[in-house]
Amino acid sequence: xxxxxxxxxxxxxxxxxxxxxxxxxxxxxxxxxxxxxxxxxxxxxxxxxxxxxxxxxxxxxxxxxxxxxxxxxxxxxxxxxxxxxxxxxxxxxxxxxxxxxxxxxxxxxxxxxxxxxxxxxxxxxxxxxxxxxxxxxxxxxxxxxxxxxxxxxxxxxxxxxxxxxxxxxxxxxxxxxxxxxxxxxxxxxxxxxxxxxxxxxxxxxxxxxxxxxxxxxxxxxxxxxxxxxxxxxxxxxxxxxxxxxxxxxxxxxxxxxxxxxxxxxxxxxxxxxxxxxxxxxxxxxxxxxxxxxxxxxxxxxxxxxxxxxxxxxxxxxxxxxxxxxxxxxxxxxxxxxxxxxxxxxxxxxxxxxxxxxxxxxxxxxxxxxxx
Length: 371
Ligand code: GLU
Prior knowledge:
Layout: E1 10-15, H1 17-20, H2 29-44, E2 48-53, H3 56-64, H4 73-97, E3 101-107, H5 109-113, H6 115-130, E4 133-139, H7 153-163, E5 168-173, E6 178-179, E7 191-192, E8 194-195, H8 200-207, H9 218-230, E9 234-239, H10 245-252, E10 256-258, H11 264-273, E11 280-284, H12 286-293, E12 303-308, E13 315-320, E14 325-330, H13 335-341, H14 349-353, E15 367-369
Parallel strand pairs: 1-2, 1-5, 2-4, 3-4, 5-9, 8-10, 11-13
Antiparallel strand pairs: 6-7, 9-10, 11-12, 13-14, 14-15
Helix pairs in contact: 2-4, 3-4, 7-9
This protein binds glutamic acid.
The site of glutamic acid has 13 residues, from helix 3 and strand 4.
């Protein structure tokens, strides 16, 4: 699968503060509207879009009159609280011009790394996208402490792409791609258009002089690229300064793509298959075993027994009644919840538990079967 925005099913676009604001913290609303125009065109073709937008601190410091260069952590956090609402309101207006609706999601490193919160955030994203709403994501800067911050939205965007099983990620930047050397210093520097593997040579290019001329730095962009391709998502670095930058990128092809060698679904399944800590076992009846082999999800009705202690979001082992290991899956329900709903129809889940997270105990996209 060659990377191309024309084929993108689910796209994450990361936008840095420098593209969004002038030096005084004023938002570039015409640029935002032009980007929204791009998103509207993509939506017409069936591409689902997620934005990761910086700019909260830049906006907020202007509102608070914090002009000094080195903001302290608490000042940044207050500025983010102040600027975030203005930022999302500006996106709401810009997207509204093109008939698009938006929602705000503020994430912390915990949300994407701790299983339960990860599953919740993933479900929220899916629900928003299913309702044709564009999630606008930023780090929850006002509550995150320095130790657990992402600190840069390049990596946050890659985590979001992995969490959403996106197939394409574009980092809009102040440079049109990844260069073999600093093009400002080296006349022979070349943009690399397709990067099939992040080799030590590529790492050496990013680690050198390139950091000097790009705001987020090529090192963090490369770290983001590694996360994205490992999750089966192609990632581009492209120039964001143009109006309608995504259209520009599609027409001219000017950008660098880091190519993923597998699909997001396969990458996710590999990750599930490789889970070392399996917290429990679920035993299936014959009908459920056949359903799984036919590519279906596991419903509580097909479960006959549950063993071990596991929470919602943990990886469990699925086995047949004869003890044959079928594979791993991420359970939507804890061991205790599973014990209460096993053998029951999905309609009964809410009656028994008082809530229903999903119809399935394990969704087919959340399982890796042994062949
Ligand atoms: N979350 C920060 C903000 O909205 C920006 C972080 C970044 O641009 O990498 O201001």
